[in-house]
Amino acid sequence: MSRTDVIPSWQEAFPSPMESESHTNRAAHHVPPRQFHWPPPSGGPGPVPRYARPHHQYVIHAPVGRKRNRLVIWLVVTSVLLFIVMFAVSIYAVFLQLMPRVVVPEILSGNWVGYGRLEGTDQLYVVRVSLISGWHNGRVDYPLHDCSGSIVPREMSGGWLVTQEHLDKSSGCSDGTLEFRKGANGQLDLRIMDQVITLQREPDGGSFRLPDSIVGSWTSKSGLEFVLDNNTPGLSGSVRSSSDVCVFAPIHTAEDGATLVAGGSTCDRNGIWTLIARDSKSVSLTIKDVNEKTIRKDTLSR
To answer: Which of 201, 227, 255 corresponds to the end of one domain?
Structure first.
């Protein structure tokens, strides 16, 4: 290396004229980068920018079939829920109707039977009632008209136990209100269809039963044919003539006879029939009309 090739260190800080000219030209053509300045806030920090959903030329909608299916499902579910609610309400209403609301007094409990006259007609009816003391429903039976059902205690009003009938609908009978109170001589007063009738207490074993002395087939002198039996509780046979058939319901029995009410839908001889056995082959018969007026006396034989 020659001496001239060595550049002193103090010369390095001073560029050559050529280098100085080249640097000056580059500086003249240099464009400084553009600087952006955000405007100063006028009233505090501005709103936070939110993401804006990009606008599409074509809007995407749910398929029409899917919307229709959802509507059908909603209607079905709503209908099912509505049916369940209505069914529950109806069951609850029936439960309230069949639930006793008052205690049946002990003095009214027992099995009772009596008869009355249908207002405006010459037809008689027999009513059998069973009452149980406490919070219990009772039973009612109209044997001559094939009607039966339950009675629900509702309230005590003026000394009367007010009950509501719920008869079997298959019988075609309509429900009514029955009111009970203790009567004289161990009897029971029943207010029914705007009339008060007297009920007798039945035996503990159930309805009255005919004594053996009058059970069987009999024929009267006037041609009436009797069949007297204890086959059906609350009934005691029938009587047949050439024009009609009457059913008997016992309202009282004794060792040698019975008092029966004749009636029914095919009976034209409604009345109170009393039979008393004379001996093993004959029975005396007394017939009273619906007004309890004696209209006939007869004798039955086997």
So the answer is: 201
Task: List beta partners, residue 157.
Answer: 160
Q: What is the pTM of this model?
A: 0.69
Rg (CA), the chain: 53
State pLDDT tens for residues 35-44: 555 565 555 5
Does pLDDT of 78 surpass 50?
yes
Shared-domain flag, residues 295 and 232: yes
CA distance 256 to 213: 6
Domain count, the chain: 2
Q: DSSP labels for the chain?
A: --GGGPPPGGGTTS--HHHHHHHHHHHHH--PPP---PPPPSSSS-PPP-PPPPP-SS-----HHHHHHHHHHHHHHHHHHHHHHHHHHHHHHHHHHHS--SPBPGGG-EEEEEEEE-TTSS-EEEEEEEE-SBS--EEEEEGGGTEEEEEEEEEEETTEEEEEEEE-GGGTPPP-EEEEEE-GGG-EEEEETTEEEEEEEPPTTSS----TTT-EEEEETTS-EEEE--SSTT--EEEE-SS-EEEEEEEEE-SSEEEEEEE-TT-S--EEEEEEE-SSSEEEEEEE-TT--EEEEEEEE-
